[in-house]
Amino acid sequence: MNTRRLLLASATAAALLAPFAASADTIKIGFITSYSGLNGNLGPYMERAARLYMKQHDKDLPKGTTVELLVRDDTGTNPDKAKQLAQELIVRDKVQMLAGVIFTPNALAIAPLATEGKVPFVIMNAGTSVITTRSPYIARVSFTLWQSTYPLGQWAAKKYKTAYTMVSDFGPGIDAEDAFTKGFKEGGGNMTGSVRVPVNNPDFAPFMQKVRDAKPQALMVFVPAGVTATAVMKNYSDLGLAKAGVKLIGPGDITTDEELDNMGDVALGALTVHHYSAAAQRPANKAFVAAWKKEYGAKETPNFLSVASWDGMDMIYYAIKEQKGKVDPEATMGLFKKYKNANSPRGPIAIDPETRDIVQDEYLREVRKVGGQLQNVEIETIAKQVKDPWKTFNPPK
Ligand code: PHB
Q1: Does residue 103's CB lie within 6 angstroms of at least one atom of ligand 1?
Q2: Strands 218-222 and 138-140, how do they pair?
Q3: Would the pLDDT of 148 be above 60?
Q4: Distance of alpha carbon 275 from alpha carbon 342, whole angstroms
Q5: What is the pLDDT averaged over residues 12-30?
Q6: What is the pLDDT of residue 298?
Q7: Which residue in 39, 165, 188, 345 is a FRET match for 305, CA 20 to 30 A apart?
Q8: Is 253 in the pocket of ligand 1 (CB under 6 A)?
Q9: CA–CA distance from 76 to each of 42, 49, 121, 175, 363 (Å)?
């Protein structure tokens, strides 16, 4: 059955099943993230950020308006499940917006439903560049892999003569490989090899062995943030790559803040480029991290998925307030395209109205020990107000 017929069929069923529609002033947001499967530990970093934002800002909503999150588990990289959930949320639960989504394949599966149902869809993680081109109802508040790994490649070319890439074999990994390679080669660097590893249950050891034998000066890695990043770090150390003089670099996904304790000292010295570190000294970030610890415990830390969810909720609340609580999909998208925040925990951000993708600064960071704690210490702002480079190099035809 095609999407339209499926939607219509479910709509009929839903009309019979849901006699009690929500009151007009409750805005329902279908929040899809991962609580199980690959890196299922990441879901709470998104949901907690959204709930913390709501707790602080519900008072700013127009009088009589409430926001309700309908949270769903897409079980990891599972486009069929993501599609099914989005469809139920749109047709049965009648959500006015969709939000969340960690994995690119899931975001791509939801995109046509957002278009079909005219449901604004705020992407709070999935980072493959092409995603936003798949529906005019998508706005992305997270990042693209091109935003971090293209400047990383340009920077690395000034420091290393040879590099190798190792990436997870799916959208964001392929983007990271392409972007780094372009930046590194343009800067005069020489790529000595590249390898793609399976997304699910990868055994990094044989790949690391290959890299060690090739002896590049730098190894650029992308794997999804979360427990996979810790597995990479352990293999890099166990197989003696650091001792062999191979420097580990990558986007911030590989030194994701919440895993640093699990990684331990093997992560020390890893150099990454990213838009967010929980250790950033900006006042807005200090306030964000302090609120997080107060709410969830002194040992807890937000990560880049948290800041995207926080900012995403800020964008959603802005659209709701501007429309005085009566949201319309076209007006909402128009407002998303105008969204700006000079004072996000990650620094100044805006939505590019042409592409509906985030514009943000990128920082060079190093894993260091500060007060006995491993942190992604921001060393310099390596690129300011970066628009997705892939879209600049591949303009719409
Ligand atoms: C993605 O699927 O787009 C993705 C997943 C995890 C990341 C980054 C991107 O850390």
Answers
A1: yes
A2: unpaired
A3: yes
A4: 14
A5: 62
A6: 96
A7: 165
A8: yes
A9: 10, 19, 18, 20, 28
